[in-house]
Specification:
Chain lengths: 309, 353
């Protein structure tokens, strides 16, 4: 492979990793507060369809991504209510969210399948920076949402690890009883974290329908929500590592395109398996090395009940 | 001042256990109603047509049973794993692997006598599903790898594998370019009730339910699975072999899902093809939860969900997207989870002065 195709590959890796980055960073936030949300796939789908519908009708893609974030937030709020207020089973509620989200998205998007998009997020060639050899095409010729995802990842990292607000989130995820004792409202913090997580998943979905595809089709996420959930473990619940991980996983997707267009005699179905197999492989390696310590929020998956302290 | 408060219950109320699933179904229907009306559809007519489509004629009822068979089996498959709090959401992929293995058997042993061929197909389906379940099972048992994610991701791999076969090496040259594997010989068809598509798979589903009930209730292993599900620490403390139990549970769970795949190709499609399953593996999860993991209740709930699927197919001609079925399924599960708080708590009015 020559330099040009490596540059092209890395540029595609960033684009393919962007929907994962949005969703994974959102899930990091939710899980840091102690709430596991396996409904990422459903929230992404609803984000993708609401973003697409609003963009098509208003011809404004910025309104589109607002709607996508709102769509993801509404679904996340259902999960939050069941898991936080009603102390329901987080695994099953997340699965319900994925099923409900999948149904809702294809119901809403019924009349929008395959429509062309006039107002998509187009790549912007940033002056000066975009002209740097090698780095320019890899980093500085993307659409606005790519940069938005990085900014949000950095911002959420800063909030989670450098502010008292973030301390509350982590405290609630590690030891809700202790957090409660020092006057932090466990429910409020968890609601907020889960809903922000839903917004991020919605944005990730919208990236697919407004920039990556860019169109609406029912299976547009193709399991990316689940890959994002796996990415959270890879990232050790840290948004900065999630940036790295997303581009790594995006790279695998980019590589499958590359192999396909290069005309190798490999069935496209085997290539399509690669991202899923790669995710499993990475999950296994990370879990073995992790030994259930570094990063895992101690209270992840457990509802908080004051009377059980 | 009066206040509503949730107070912890000392023991589970059987009334709540029964009432919550029923209320959940009713509330989900209500949510669907609101959604339909807001989207400009005639909700009453939609539901009427759904019921008509699922129960309106002997043929409709037989079709509902046809759908209930795989749903019952996948529901039973995942309920075994859920008993031990192993989140096997890979029944869909295990089903596809079972279908693949069964079709493979037909390719090589197609001239065997029917009863023998069908038995080998069923065994192969079980084995392939079991292996597909054992992979995430072993990863979980030995290295504690999250089985929720791995089982789900393996679904995609299994479905792509079957697609590869029916588009590639196993493609029937006589199928006019469609991605279909060759049609099975008659010997590989499951016997049916004449005049309908209801096949002998219904007996398999009932047999599996009875067997699971007995194993879970009366054997030492069933007891261990239940204890491990309730409290892994207690299980380990009591000297139970958790690793072995995880492997066994995933083997049985995957195996039942694999048999489902065999039953679908042998009883319904009569060949390997892409869309063997209408998301049976995922719907099975809802059924298992709604049935509270009780094998006999799974059969009953599967019948209701079979009706939902058939009714949902039916209203498509009326312009209602099939997605309404998924929405109703998701909504049922939400209400069930929400209602389950009443199992642990009761609502009381207290007076605060």
């Amino acid at each position: 492979m020559d330099l040009n195709s490596i540059v092209a590959l890395l540029a595609v890796a960033i684009v393919a990793g962007t929907p994962l980055l949005f969703a994974a960073v959102g899930e990091v936030m939710a899980e840091r507060s102690g709430i596991l949300n396996l409904g990422v796939e459903g929230m992404m789908l609803v984000g993708a369809v609401t973003g697409f519908i609003v963009t098509v009708t208003t011809e404004n893609h910025w309104l589109g991504i607002l709607a996508a974030a709102a769509g993801g937030a509404v679904l996340a709020a259902i999960h939050a209510f069941i898991c936080i207020t009603l102390k329901g089973n987080q695994v099953v509620s997340g699965l319900a969210l994925t099923i409900f989200g999948t149904g809702t998205a294809s119901f809403l998007g019924k009349n929008y399948v395959g429509l062309p998009l006039t107002n998509r997020f187009n790549p912007i060639d940033i002056p000066v920076l975009g002209d740097i050899p090698v780095l320019g095409p890899i980093l500085f010729r993307h659409d606005a949402m790519v940069y938005l995802s990085i900014v949000l990842a950095l911002a959420l990292w800063y909030i989670m690890f450098r502010t008292s607000w973030g301390l509350s989130i982590r405290a609630v995820g590690e030891n809700p009883a202790a957090a409660d004792a020092v006057g932090i409202s466990v429910s409020r913090v968890r609601y907020l974290a889960v809903i922000v997580g839903g917004m991020m998943a919605g944005l990730g979905g919208a990236y697919l329908s407004l920039a990556y595809a860019p169109t609406w089709q029912e299976s547009i996420t193709a399991g990316r929500g689940w890959i994002a959930v796996a990415l959270v473990i890879f990232a050790l619940w840290n948004p900065l590592r999630a940036i790295l991980g997303s581009y790594l996983f995006g790279g695998v997707e980019a590589l499958t395109f590359r192999i396909q267009t290069a005309g190798f005699q490999i069935s496209p179905f085997f290539l399509s398996m690669l991202p899923y197999l790669f995710t499993i492989l990475v999950l296994v390696i990370v879990t073995i090395r992790l030994r259930q310590e570094a990063g895992v929020p101690a209270a992840l998956g457990f509802p908080y009940d004051r009377e059980e302290r | 001042m009066k206040r509503l408060r949730l107070v912890r219950r000392n023991n589970e109320s059987w009334l709540v256990k029964v009432a919550v699933p029923i209320l959940s179904i009713l509330l989900a229907i209500l949510v669907g109603w609101i959604f339909l009306v807001l989207s400009g559809y005639d909700a009453a007519e939609t539901y009427r047509r759904m019921i008509q489509g699922a129960f309106g004629s002997p043929y409709a009822i037989s079709e509902t049973i046809v759908k209930a068979i795989p749903l019952a089996l996948t529901g039973l498959a995942v309920s075994v794993a859920f008993r031990m709090k192993l989140w096997n959401i890979g029944a869909e992929g295990q089903l596809y692997m079972g279908a693949f293995a069964a079709a493979g058997v037909v390719m090589f042993l197609g001239d065997w006598p029917s009863w023998l061929l069908l038995s080998v197909m069923l065994a192969a389906g079980f084995a392939a599903g079991a292996i597909w379940g054992l992979i995430p099972g072993a990863l979980r048992a030995f290295w504690n790898v999250n089985e929720t994610i791995t089982t789900l991701l393996l679904n995609y791999v299994a479905i792509f594998w079957v697609s590869y076969l029916v588009f590639g090496p196993w493609k029937d040259p006589n199928a006019m370019g469609f991605p279909l594997a060759p049609r099975f010989p008659q010997a590989a068809y499951l016997p049916v009730i004449p005049g309908s598509r209801v096949h002998i798979g219904i007996l398999v589903a009932v047999a599996v339910a009875v067997l699971l009930y007995i194993v879970m209730k009366y054997t030492r292993w069933g007891y261990e699975v239940r204890v491990t599900g309730e409290s892994p620490e207690a299980a380990r403390y009591a000297g139970m072999n958790v690793v072995r139990n995880i492997l066994l549970v995933m083997l049985v769970s995957g195996g039942i899902a694999g048999m489902t795949g065999m039953i679908e190709v042998s009883g319904i499609t009569h060949r390997l093809q892409q869309d063997i399953s209408a998301s049976y593996g995922y719907t099975g999860i809802i059924i298992a939860w709604l049935a509270r993991l009780n094998p006999f209740t799974v059969l009953l709930v599967a019948f209701l969900f079979g009706a939902l699927l058939v009714g949902g197919f039916g209203v498509q001609t009326y312009g209602i997207p099939y997605a309404i079925v998924l929405m109703l399924q998701g909504a049922v599960l939400f209400f069930l989870l929400a209602g389950d708080i009443m199992l642990k708590y009761r609502l009381t009015i207290t007076r605060e002065d």
